[in-house]
Amino acid sequence: MSFKNISFIGLCLILASCETKKTEKFDLEYTVTSNLKNEPTLDVQFKYKTDGKGVLNLDYVNSSMGDTDIFNCIKKLKVENEEANISFVRDSNLIKIKSVPNKELVISYSIAQDFKEPLYNHHRYRPIITKDYFHVLGVRLFMVPSNIYKSEIDVAKINVKWNGIPNKGIIHNSFGKNLSQTFTVNQENLFASFFVGGDFRRKEFLYKNKSVYWVTRGDWKNFNDEDVFNILKETITFQNNFWKDTINSSFSVSLLPTQEKNHYSIGGSGFSNSFISFASNNQFVELKNIAWLYNHELLHKWLGRTIKNKNEVQQYWFSEGFTNYYSYKLLLKNNQLSVNEFLKEINTIIAKHYKDPLNAIPNSKLTFNTYWGDYKNYQKLPYRRGLTYAFLIDMQIKLKSNYKHSLDNVMLDLLAIAKSDSSMRLNNEVFKKMLLKYLGKNSIKEFNKHILEGKLITFKEQIVSGLEIKNEQSIPQFVLSNKVDIAQVKKELKL
Question: Cα angle at 385 between 383 and 387, to 5 degrees?
Answer without folding.
Answer: 65
